[in-house]
Structures are given as C-alpha cells and as structure tokens.
Amino acid sequence: MFRYELLHVDQNCGARLGRLHTPRGVIELPTFMPVGTCGTVKGMTTDMVEATGSQILLGNTYHLHLRPGESVVKELGGLHKFMGWDKPILTDSGGFQVFSLAQRTVVDEQGATFRSHIDGSKITITPEISVQIQQDLGSDIAMVFDHVIELPSSREKVKDAMDRSIRWAERCRDAHTLESQVQFGILQGGLDESLRIECAKELRQLDFPGYAIGGLSVGEPPPEMYRIIEATTPHMPEDRPRYLMGVGRPEDLLQAVLRGVDMFDCVMPTRNGRNAMAFTDDGFLKMKNAIHERDPRPIQAGMHTPHAELSRGYIRHLFMAKEMLAGMLVSMHNIGYYQRLMTQAREAIAADRFLDFFEERMAGWAGGKSSD
Amino acid sequence: MFRYELLHVDQNCGARLGRLHTPRGVIELPTFMPVGTCGTVKGMTTDMVEATGSQILLGNTYHLHLRPGESVVKELGGLHKFMGWDKPILTDSGGFQVFSLAQRTVVDEQGATFRSHIDGSKITITPEISVQIQQDLGSDIAMVFDHVIELPSSREKVKDAMDRSIRWAERCRDAHTLESQVQFGILQGGLDESLRIECAKELRQLDFPGYAIGGLSVGEPPPEMYRIIEATTPHMPEDRPRYLMGVGRPEDLLQAVLRGVDMFDCVMPTRNGRNAMAFTDDGFLKMKNAIHERDPRPIQAGMHTPHAELSRGYIRHLFMAKEMLAGMLVSMHNIGYYQRLMTQAREAIAADRFLDFFEERMAGWAGGKSSD
Prior knowledge:
The structure is a homodimer of 372-residue chains.
Chain A: E1 3-9, E2 16-22, E3 25-29, E4 31-36, H1 46-51, E5 57-59, H2 61-66, H3 70-75, H4 78-83, E6 89-91, H5 95-100, E7 103-107, E8 112-115, E9 122-125, H6 127-137, E10 141-143, H7 155-175, E11 182-187, H8 193-205, E12 211-213, H9 222-232, E13 242-244, H10 250-258, E14 263-266, H11 268-274, E15 277-280, E16 283-286, H12 312-320, H13 324-350, H14 354-367
Parallel strand pairs in A: 4-5, 4-14, 5-6, 6-10, 10-11, 11-12, 12-13, 13-14
Antiparallel strand pairs in A: 1-2, 2-3, 7-8, 8-9, 15-16
Domain tRNA-guanine(15) transglycosylase-like (chains A, B): 14-365
EC number (chains A, B): 2.4.2.29
Catalytic activity (chains A, B): 7-aminomethyl-7-carbaguanine + guanosine(34) in tRNA = 7-aminomethyl-7-carbaguanosine(34) in tRNA + guanine
C-alpha cells in the first residue's frame, strides 16, 4: 500500500524525482505540503487547496490534541472526513510545538509536560501518547515524537536531545499499530555534522519507511541549514522519502531539493498570504503598497490556480478594505506558487537541468525589485 | 438585450415566476442577490459564490466610491473584471448608505453631502454623480439615487422625501447614457399605503425597465413591511421586475414572494455566517454551541453547495479555534440556503403550490428548536 519509488536523480546534482504511493493516492516528489494546523489550511477551503495542485496536507498533532481533541476527530470519522480532504495527510508528532509554543515545558525520559498555550492546562505528551493521538487522527503518515531544542546549543545538550530522540523513535515504532498508517523517523543532531550522521545511522537500524530532517529552521542562518542538509542526505537511505520539516522560503526549498530532499512543509505561504506578501519569480510583492493601486497585472503570470487573473490593483484594494478575501486569495496564490515551483523542479530534474532551473529562479528572486 | 419575461403567476397567490434577460445572462426569478459591498462577497471567492447558485451580485456604489474609487475600478476594466465575476451585477445608488452609514449628512434638493465613515472626508453625491459612478463601475442594473429616511417619521416628512426621490429619479433617468446598463426606479413612501401608491403611479410615468421597493427594513415591525408590500405590488407594472431592497430573513423573502416580489438582496447570510449563525429548514443554528461538538450531521441535509457534507462538529470546532474557514463555510452555506429557498420557490410557483411550500417552511422555522 505504501511505497517510495525513486524515478530519477539529476545527472548534475542530488535532486531526486520520485513517487510516494499511498492508499489515498500517489504523491509526485519533490512536493510541498500545505499546513492545516487546526484541521484547516488557514483561509482556504479544501477545494481551494486542491486547486493549488497540493497532493498532501500536514496536520498538527499538538494543536488538534488541544482543540478539539483527537477523540472528537475520531468520533467524527477521522481527520480526513473531519476536514473534508480525501488525499493523504501527514501529521507531525507535536515535538516541535512542545518546543516552540507550549509553556513551562519540562522534558524527561518519559516525555514532555507543559502548559497549553490556549488555556494553560497541564498536558503530557510521551512518545506513546503522540503515536496514539496520530492513530486516532488517522493520518496516512505519522511522525515519531522527538526532542527539539533551540540552536545554537552546546554539543552535549544537542547530543543528549538527539540520543533521547532516538530512544523515543524506537518507543514510537514499538507503540505503532495502525496498519493504514506509516511512521517516519526524524533525524536530529543540531548543526553538528557528525551528530547528524550518527543519528542517521542509528535511525536506519529502526527501518522507518521514510525519514525527516528535524530541528532545523529554528533561527540558524540559512547557509548553516544547507550545510547540515548536504552533510545528512548522503547518509539517509536512497530508497526512502526524505522530508525537511518546517522549511521554508522558496529558495530554501530549491536549496534542499538540490541536496536530495523530497518533501517540505511550512506555514509561510499562508501566513505571508494573510500578511499581504505574495511570492513571484521576481521576489515577493507587498500587496498593500500604493504602487499596486492601478496595476492591472496578475501577481504572477502563468499561474494555474483559480482567480490567478485578478489584478494587483484588486488584491491591493481588498487588503486596504480589510476584506477576508485578500488573505484567502494571496494564501491560495502563495501555495499555488510553491506547487508550481515543485512542478517546475520535477520537470527540470526529469530533464537533468535542475541546476539551470535553480540558477534561473535564484537570479529572479535576487534581482527582482521585491518592489513594493 | 434587457428584457423581463413573466412566465407564470401562482393560481393561489401573487407569487411570480419570471426571467430577467440581460447581456450577461438570464436570471431566473424570484432570486436572491448576495451583497458584494466592497467588490467582494465577504469571505467568499467568486467561485464559491457561483457554486451557491447565485445568478447576480449586488455592489455598493457608496462603498466603492469611497474605496478604491470608481476611477480605479474603471481603469482596471470595470467592476466585473475587477472582482472576477462575469455574471450580472446590480449596483445600488448609495441612497441607503448615505442614510445609514455616512456621518453628518445634509440633504438638499441638489443632493446629499456627508462625511465618509472611513476617513471623515467630505463627500457629495447627487443623482447625476450616482449615475456617473454606476456607469464607471459598469454594472448591468443601476439604481436611481433616492432619499431614504428613518421610520417612523411624520407623513409630511415621508412625503417630502418621496417627492424628492421622484424628482431625483427623473434626473437620474435624464443623466443616464450607458447603453449596456439599465436603471431601476425606487418606490418610497414609508409605511403610508396611499403615498406608496402615489409614488408607484408617478414613477410609472418615468417608464423604468424595473422597479424597487425601497425604504423598508429600516427597523419597522415585519408585519408593517408585509402590509406595505401587499399594498404596493398591485400598483407596480406587471411586465417589469420587482425588487425589494435590503430584505431580509428567509421568512421575509417568502412573505414578499407571496406578494409578487421577484428580487432580493441582504447582507444577512454573510454577516450571520461570520457570526456563527447558520440557516436551516428547522430554524437557525448557533454554531458555537457545545451541543454541536460531536454532531456528525451536516448543517442542513440536501444542500448542493460545496462542502455541505462537513459536520456540525467540524464547523463548531472552526469557530472555537477562530479559523477564517468557519465564517467562509457558513457564509457559503447561508447563501446556498437562500438560493435553495428561491429555487424551491420557483419550482413551487410553477406547480401552483407556493402557498403549501410557504406554510411548510414557515412551520419548520417556527417549530425548529433553533437549538442550540
């Protein structure tokens, strides 16, 4: 039911063309997963999400556990039925949110105890609880519960969290029983290449059907992130999908594809969309700027998402009038832009010209008068 | 290009089945027009609006004049292209907003001068200016600029505003030059039947291709409104469409259809949608109520709008989590509910059973435990 297929590696770099077969459909790789934090991609119906070319969504275990609770989701038919999305869903484990959102978090060998960021109630998530929540949600791909820490941290602290994450990964694997769901391991190790390689080797022993690179994009400079990706992917199994968690900007996606990563998720396209930032091949546009007032051009020519023909002037008007539709349309545009980028990347890899495509896009983003 | 066709009058009441032919398509009557105040039906893409079965939208002259200004809309191709809606659009004249929204309004024979509710700037709208704005917007149906007053008012004051509205209607007719647009007259006369009849007779002389009943739903009890509609429609031309402005609740629509009204507009479905009130055949649901938490039923069975299968539990969750999608989905549901009601009304009129349909729906709305 679940199978990764490596179709082609670009002759000039590490970029991979692949396919992830799942019971709910085939996912062409590399791909971007829009984030549906609380059971909705913010500001978008599932029809709108589908129209962007998205093949798989991400749901957040931490958020759904807090509200409405996995028992409600399960009783209402599981996350797919709950939110009306019948393509694949990947759920994260809550590890990142326990680190980034929860309050007064205490981590010990058993798990993490913290206060809800919504109502301050005391909550414990252990590897076994995270697995159970994700099974109740009924996602197609679950993530192991990991220990995420801030960067930079001392090597000792990084290694300690990494070792714990490896032990927790094994507990997650052992607790996992849902046959319709697979579980991905998560590589930790901070910005230390030797730790990343060690973690990759340890987790290979646990034989997960897919592997993620976690604990990045937590404030470190992008070149540091690229360095770690480049050091890590050669030690990840070639016959398993590779997922870079929580990343990122369009340039980060291409930098990671170049180094052999297949899957991405990030709130940036929707968060920026609500904040009037629209991605284009010439850099981003600040849609509230007066320069757009009478501009008849679309945000980006050549897009296939619905309403892509609407003018910059109209979008600017919607933001000035504080209309909900403003954030809805630019969120949809931005996710559509990310998916178009992934489609173009797949076409480029198939033709062994990913490096050319990479250079072309980077030049456009760097040279664009990110106006306005 | 523009033609009203009376297809059938129910044998047992005044309900009319009709068709309005316009250059941008045929509108089956009776119909409901969603309100796109600032160039968007709040919280909905035009795809979503179209999926509700809506055949024509309303745009607000007052709001669009203030922001972004009709010159921007015109430069960007007119209101249809601006907002991406190629079916018919009706624009109101601004008369109602000058009365209800503008500040420090002074009306004299020339027109109305007031302060913008957005930035306090001083603005004048005369009949000629209203006509020009609507021509720049490029709507298919324009409304004459009228003098709306609060109710109750003295007969003298009502007659004075009515007489002015008639004089302004003639000035609007004389100022109108856009061939692709028709202009509807607006009947005033407050809650005084004899004034309403007088106004209808006067405006018939001006030979508008359609007539609206204005100045109602401004706070008077619904039975008063029904009484005025009942007294007025017999004096409106049978061969022209009849539009009841700014009304209203589902029961108001059926009460007016019963008395021979063909067209409606109201912000209620979208405003209530954003405020978690969903219309059903059993009354409305307050979607934030805890009773819905684990309810797998759709808001209303038998709906054809997109995502109509989503559970009450999911919708409630979205409201509790303050997700944009909550208001988006319930706005779409509510407009879809209004359009379903109009479709059912048309089917009932064609079969001479509108009275039965009317009683059935009224009983449902009255008897429903508007739960929850």
